[in-house]
Amino acid sequence: MDMKRLIGISASCYLFIVSALAAQTVRGDAKRGGELFQKMKCVSCHAVRGTGGSVGPALGAKPGTHDSANAVAAAMWSHAVKMWEAMEKAGMAQPKISQQQAADLVAYIAGKVRPDPPGDAARGRKVYEAKLCASCHDQYSGAPEFTRLTEAVSPYWMVAGLWDHGRGMLSRIVERKAAWQELTAQEVGDILAYLNTRK
Questions:
Q1: pTM of the model
Q2: Of 114, 118, 159, 198, which has the fewest beta carbons less than 10 angstroms from its beta carbon?
């Protein structure tokens, strides 16, 4: 084997390993998540395993409901508008959440985090377009551009983005006379799989 080919194979292996490591998401800590759940006043509306308020849906109550990162991200996304309305009515400031904090909240809510099945990029592209994501993020609209991402994305990235840019997303959707789009856990996984082909 000549040296150029050897160098090429080595470089390919290196890039594969780096990409695999980049795709790994942060690890959540349930204890920190529980403390954050109290600090952010999520407990005022939501109960986790019987402890907390009853204004919003109970979390972590049923196996298979809020027990994976994609499932929690989908639930937050789908109920975001109702959460924001309830927070505004109660005079609560909307918090910003980092990816690490999102992972900690998932660990607390899920109890034991179930691994999500792999997403399908082809399906994800269709969902990404059908749910209006492309109409804002693939062309200049003031929204973050997703045509080429510089990092691997995860459900925690999605949750952090929801709390950081969600109000802006909602205002753009209202301007277009469209409805806030709900997502399933599978759709979250598929969208993320598609976005990760853009790195």
A1: 0.83
A2: 118
